[in-house]
Amino acid sequence: MSKGRFYITTPIYYPSSKLHIGHTYTTVAADAMARFKRLTGYDVKFLTGTDEHGQKIEEVAKEHGVSPKEYVDKIVDGIKKLWETMEISYDIFIRTTDEYHERRIQQIFQKLYEKGDIYKSHYEGWYCTPCESFWTETQLKDGKCPDCGRDVELTQEEAYFFKLSKYQDRLIKLFEENPEFLLPESRKNEMISNFLKPGLEDLCVSRTSFDWGIKVPFDEKHIIYVWFDAVCNYITALGYPEIQEEDYKKFWPADVQLVGKEIVRFHTIIWPAILMALDIPIPKKVFGHGWILLEGGKMSKSKGNVVDPVVLVERYGVDALKYFLLREYSFGQDGLFTNEVLLNRINSDLANDLGNLVSRTIAMIEKYNGGIIPKPKTKGEYDEDLENLATSVWSKVEERMNKLNYSGALEEIWKLVGRTNKYIDETTPWILAKDDENKDRLDTVLYNLAESIRIISVLIRPFMDKTARKIWVQLGIDEGQGTGWEDIMEFGKLESGIKVHKQPPLFPRIDVQKELKELAGNNKNTEKNESKNQKKENKKSKKKKEKDQISIDDFAKIDLKVAEVIEAKEHPNADKLLVLQLKVGDETRQVVSGIAEHYKPQELVGQKLILVANLKPVKLRGIESQGMILAASTKDKLTLVTADIESGTTVS
Ligand code: ME8
Predict the structure, then answer these.
(1) Would the CB of 23 count as within 6 Å of ligand 1?
(2) Of 78, 87, 81, 94, which is closest to residue 17 (Cα–Cα)?
(3) Cβ atoms within 10 A of the Cβ of 385, count?
(4) DSSP character string of 316-351
(5) Which of 40, 200, 404, 539 has the smallest number of CB atoms closer than 10 Å to its CB?
(6) At residue 322, does pLDDT exceed 90?
(7) Which atom of ligand 1 is the closest one to the Cα of 13?
(8) Under CATH, domain 552-651 is a member of which superfamily?
(9) Is residue 371 a contact partner of residue 433, using CB atoms and an 8 Å limit?
(10) For ligand 1, atom 15: residue with the closest CA
(11) Would you tell me which CATH number, out of the four given (3.40.309.10, 3.30.300.20, 1.10.730.10, 3.40.50.150), belongs to the domain 338-488?
């Protein structure tokens, strides 16, 4: 009987041509949890997918000379293949370009607009394209994106806003009343002190300066902000808002949402606020895991310091890699990856501890009992200790897994691996085998070893499914013969009389020095390829730069005029905007400008500024702006360009 339902999600991945080991960390962790919950009797839904819209994708596709859809289609196939290689047992793979998702996002947007939680206004601020994030001037760090440290662009456009500020108090309450909502604890403090306490601003949720996204249903010039579209995947994948029976009803709210620490803000502030606005429940838990770092920082393609999971899987097998990732690092914290740490961990825990235990036991059953698992007979010292541990590990694993403490869960399992190895040394079967009088005791020892290995094989199923199955082959059992979770609460379930099958070692021992050299050689080849790629990229970007250059004719299209401020007032609906009346020769122009934080209205009267006079008029928060004035901006200061020349003069 099912213990209930369990919904777990990973973030949806940006279609990047090469996902690295850091990306696989989130899916490997989610996969182990999904398998664990299935094994322990839950009805599980495990969601992953791809986040395919946005400016970044549009730009990359352009560089490749293909349409964004052509570009993502190819890459998404590669991502699905990677998850196949990594044996990721997802139930749903959502693409944000799936027709059903796009339709449901429009329905959600419409719903919030009708409710008044989305409204039209004007955005003026900074945008980080690689992170697809909006930032205010004060949030920037040394003028760069505070998340990734890269350049940001000044963005000014008419846009729809989501009333995030309206949900500030409810969000603070959510954190206060649900200590388990965001884990680990340190991330919660970060969200409260960095974002919630300073005060939330409404969030810009539409863009007009590019096309690749889902159209705002009632204003097709706008596309929906990619993060709004992306976070809502967790519910559109279940049918919301169209089909609220079946999956949505059964699986929402999510039990656990796994995310990397850099996107916790989107998942614990913006995402719950959208859910509050929709009047639907908040996920039970968001876990912000740490980063896998290389010397020199976080892995990233632009830094060229990535580790390819496929290379590691080809050399050491998928189970070794999954085990390593979950055992070596504490899930909430950052951890440093080196080949040496990986190889040593495989050798010590997998080749030595587990691999040797299985091969020694099978070899002894072959040698001392003709390959047949004997019936246990004479009890002896050490048996009880082994049995007690073997039948209690499952509850410790459950406890650790429910806290997403993967490393701790594996540590508990390896206590049993170690105890069983020690049991061999204590009972010395090779000495018992020398004397027929000890045959009954030898039978018990061999049985207990095989039984303990059966229990270990079930315990490792969520983490290393293939290895568990390989152990069953060696023990001569099939799935269903003592391989379920409930079968490890009792010692003695393994049938006697079964024939064992010796197989090659589960994890061959690695010659670390030799392997390190080969991996370094591999890297050099990759570096060579990468430097080739870099050259290609440079060529491409040179071409792009050339393409980005404009001709004198293009420039001549811009009509710049000297304009004198004859009146300046605060905008009635926006703190950051001023409304200026400008004299341009004989004409008067009204311009709305985002300079209120830098200039007081009275300072401006009489100043002669440079106006882009032939810009199409737009309404900014309800007031028409007939042009734009030029300003130079440094990190935190904005200075208007002035000219002591008669108003109306053309600047060229
Ligand atoms: O963030 N170590 O997608 P993504 C650990 N599309 N985890 C890492 C990592 C590293 N070195 N590098 C990446 C996005 N990750 C958005 C999500 S969800 C509505 C939208 C993790 O492809 C990262 O933290 O950049 C994130 O959890 C996942 O890989 C996908 O990252």
Answers:
(1) yes
(2) 78
(3) 13
(4) H-HHHHHHHHHHHS-TTS-EE--HHHHHHHIIIIII
(5) 539
(6) yes
(7) 22
(8) Nucleic acid-binding proteins (2.40.50.140)
(9) no
(10) 23
(11) 1.10.730.10
CA–CA dist 278, 167 (Å, integer): 12
Residue 288's H or E segment, with its range, is strand 286-289
- Between the CA of 415 and the centroid of ligand 1 the distance, in Å, is 33
Ligand 1 center from residue 159 Cα (angstroms): 27
Angle (deg, nearest 10), helices 271-278 and 168-177: 110
Identify the residue whose C-alpha is closest to ligand 1 atom 12: 22
- Measured from the CB, is residue 263 less than 6 Å from ligand 1? yes
pLDDT tens, position by position, 621-635 = 788 889 999 998 776
Taking the complete model, does pTM exceed 0.90, yes or no?
Answer: no
Would the CB of 468 count as within 6 Å of ligand 1?
no
Per-residue pLDDT tens digits for 71-110: 999 999 999 999 999 999 999 999 999 999 999 999 999 9
Q: Which segments of 40-98 does DSSP mark as H helices, in order?
A: 55-63, 68-85
Residue found under tokens 């023990």: 475
Ramachandran class of 427: left when φ > 0, alpha when ψ lies in -120 to 50, beta otherwise: alpha
**Residue type at 449?**
L
Determine if ligand 1 sits within 6 Å of the CB of residue 54. no
Distance of alpha carbon 447 from alpha carbon 453, whole angstroms: 10
With b for 16 or more beta-carbon neighbours within 10 A and e for fewer, the 264-287 pattern comes to bbbbbbbbbbbbbbbeeebbebbb
Output the CA–CA distances (angstroms, integers) from residue 85 to 3, 328, 407, in the order listed: 30, 21, 23
Ligand 1 near 21 CB (within 6 A): no
Distance 558 CA to ligand 1 centre (A): 42
- For residue 26 and ligand 1, the question of a CB distance below 6 A is answered with yes
Q: How far apart are CA 102 and CA 214, in angstroms?
A: 6
Residue 275 CA, ligand 1 centroid: distance in Å: 22
Give the whole-angstrom CA distance, residue 539 versus residue 649. 42
Amino acid at 453: I
> Tens of pLDDT along 567-626?
999 988 888 889 999 999 989 999 999 898 888 898 899 999 999 999 888 888 788 889
Closest protein CA for atom 10 of ligand 1: 22
Please report where in the chains the tokens 């959600």 appear, as a residue: 108
Ligand 1 site-directed mutation target among 16, 25, 265, most atoms within 8 Å of CB: 25
pLDDT above 70: percentage of residues in the chain = 95
